[in-house]
């Protein structure tokens, strides 16, 4: 086999679509909750085209003669939260299993070199959990798990709601709950900045977050649930419609996204978030949704233990590698 790594061009889109569709069929064999439409090569091709249309997107292809063996495509995201970062989205990587996964390492060497040369030192990859060999390849490239993406099939959900203790009240938020929501706006980030997550929270954004939470009751399509203990608001969950996107292989049709969930520290361990989850998911099911998606930091020990117990099944990892930025100058060059 004579393998060549070259920049990805549109002439390889059809073969890339075949590889991605084959990968997705394998993924759905283990995770039937995933959307079925990407099993079709033409839909998979459209997903790759959408990935290539993202800002500063580029990629590399591995060729054996005129046959595409594997490809890797990523785009750049530069903002105050993620810094200078590069992202491989869910349609951004596929390979022919008959040729093996090792070639992905060479593709990353080519694409990663381009990123680093532009001062992009934070590299992210969204990878399905169904391919241990591919995950191991990324681990061998110094990537690690940062975020877990998970789904729950609402059609198989037990609709029974547990009895609510007399001191607990659960209800949907309304226009009169803006202050309650604002008061809960710090629950998630105060937990996330602690060990072992150490997720940053910019001080200048705290007031904006507070105001954004207060405005959740005004957002179209958003359902927020509140829990009160002895008359004091102690927990919330927020659900958004999850619109299927051309380049997102994780979101099925008729899905809802559980985007925010938090319980005040003094109210944890009492089953309040479990009750909120039961109410929220049952309401989503009765509203016609078939699936619910959520995600959490792998280092958030409360979330990592809680959501799988509620029935959420991990479907993908967000992997990250952060490269020492000193490589921009500590690379063998000498001062004259």
TrEMBL record:
Q: Sorted alphabetically, which PROSITE patterns does this protein's record hold?
A: GNAT
**Listed GO MF terms:** acyltransferase activity, transferring groups other than amino-acyl groups
So which domain of life are we looking at? Bacteria
Ranges of residues in domain N-acetyltransferase: 168-336
Pfam families attached here? Answer: Acetyltransf_1
Q: What is this protein called?
A: N-acetyltransferase domain-containing protein
